[in-house]
Amino acid sequence: MAQVRLFVEHPLGEGQSVSLTREQAHYLFGVMRLGPGDSLLLFDGRSGEFRAKVAEAGRRGGTLICAAQTRPLRMPPDLWLMFAPIRKARTDFIVEKATELGAARIRPVQTEFTNAERIRRDRLRAHAIEAAEQCGGTFVPDIDDLARLDTVLDGWPADRNLMFCDEALAGQARPLAHRPGPWAILIGPEGGFSPAERARLVAMVQAVPVSLGPRILRADTAAVAALTLWQSRLGDW
Amino acid sequence: MAQVRLFVEHPLGEGQSVSLTREQAHYLFGVMRLGPGDSLLLFDGRSGEFRAKVAEAGRRGGTLICAAQTRPLRMPPDLWLMFAPIRKARTDFIVEKATELGAARIRPVQTEFTNAERIRRDRLRAHAIEAAEQCGGTFVPDIDDLARLDTVLDGWPADRNLMFCDEALAGQARPLAHRPGPWAILIGPEGGFSPAERARLVAMVQAVPVSLGPRILRADTAAVAALTLWQSRLGDW
After folding, report:
1. Model ipTM?
2. Residue B2 has pLDDT above 80, yes or no
3. Which residue from A103, A107, A116, B167 lies 20 to 30 Å from A124 (Cα-Cα)?
4. Number of folded domains in chain A?
5. Contacts with B135 from chain A: Cβ below 8 Å
6. Residue B71 and residue B43: Cα distance in Å, rounded?
7. Residue A189's pLDDT is what?
8. Quick check: B216 and B165 in contact, CB under 8 A?
9. d(Cα A227, Cα A184) in Å, to the nearest integer?
10. Could you list the mean pLDDT of each consecutive 10-residue stretch along chain A, which spans 237 residues?
11. Residue A2: predicted pLDDT
């Protein structure tokens, strides 16, 4: 049987007892059918992964006791993923994949040509947590509120490189070469960047325009492809 | 307004008239609200893309007339994607992404540790067609019936390299280097390969074990990541 892995907000350590929320109790005891004495794996996004045992199991809550650490915290590289959210299912998908592929922070941005619905951070965070639970991760990326791209670029850190994927720039694309400092990936919205946005991005010294091939990719495909390229050339693969 | 793009089975050429099926007529005239004289783009997967005009529009059918070619056929590299189908939504997704990222042929395989439901080739083909319509493609990958992995390997072409992604082999992974001949990508099932399958794959001279990083990826993420790696290093990016 596959090992149950659960993310908890509570800081973990050997011997630590952890109280469960009603939802967690429902999942562990109702859905996964665990009971007192059963073992599972816990992580909190900061302290690594621990084996734990069920001490008390109730319908509305319960208590777990942490045993030994089973894995240290594994942080992803200092990489942001920025994208313009469009449809809910594809936004959920991008958050799931960014967690699996190792982004440290996810920043949804509103561009001139995207009519972004409001995002639900709690919902996106739940997707990131589920992806980390499923994929053996010990870290859950931070998810920012939706912000306007121009506001984000106004406050852009001088040392953070920006891999910038825009099919209209295929001719100006540069190879993804090593540069010192942290990175971010920016995925163009499906409607494309506006001329003003494109001009501003191209003029940034931190920006590296990158091509994702001769075929037009949907935004969610482009996000996974860009994360893969970055991780395989500059990241921890 | 975005240009309507439609895949048709009928071979295309300038001046060619094309009869529509009931479903195509419903889509063009009912959903997209086109009428006589309106223009759209057609492709057949073999002849490139053509501008066409609506000649007759009916509730159960209609006729289009091809004008000039707007794009030549763009074939993807001779790359197969093989994966073990599990859940329907993720299988659909893999087919969509393989079309966008440029695979020529999709071969679903049954491994020892996957209890694959039967696949619906017609449904998967519809997903591939829709992806090509949306993404400006002029080619739709072939989709094979589900076959047992050992049967596929029994008939493996001597000259076809096999990029083989298996997280249990991370230590034996080799860089994805250029080799002559066509390629295939094989994505491990979520339950992993059996020891016998793994031994057989490792022993194949055509096989190149490749690592997809230190995090465990779901099969659909692994498929997109592997296609990206291959295309960016050995393909047409």
Report:
1. 0.89
2. no
3. B167
4. 2
5. 215-218
6. 9
7. 85
8. no
9. 10
10. 86 96 95 96 96 95 96 95 88 95 96 82 95 93 95 96 81 76 92 90 92 87 95 89
11. 63
CATH of the domain at A60: 2.40.240.20
The pair of three-digit structure tokens given for residue A205, joined into one six-digit string: 């010294």
pLDDT greater at residue B130 or residue A116: B130
**Same domain? A124 vs A12:** no
Structural domain containing residue A59: 5-71
Cβ contact B102–A215 (<8 Å): yes
Beta strand ranges found along chain B (DSSP E): 5-7, 17-19, 39-43, 49-57, 62-71, 79-83, 105-110, 142-143, 147-148, 161-165, 183-187, 207-210
Same domain (yes/no): A49, A113: no
Instruction: Identify all chain A residues contacting B1, using CB atoms and an 8 Å cutoff.
Output: none
| CATH code of residue B196 | 3.40.1280.10
Residues linked to residue A6 through DSSP beta bridges, in sequence order: A42
A135, B229: Cβ pair inside 8 Å? no
> Cβ A213–B225 below 8 Å, yes or no?
no
Same domain membership, residue A191 and residue A100: yes
pLDDT, residue B180, reads: 87
Looking at the structure, do residues A28 and A63 belong to the same domain, yes or no?
A: yes
Pick from B135, B217, B235: CB nearest A218: B135
What pTM value is reported for the model?
A: 0.91
Question: Based on the domain organization, do B85 and B118 belong to the same domain?
Answer: yes
Give me the percent of chain B exceeding a pLDDT of 90. Answer: 75
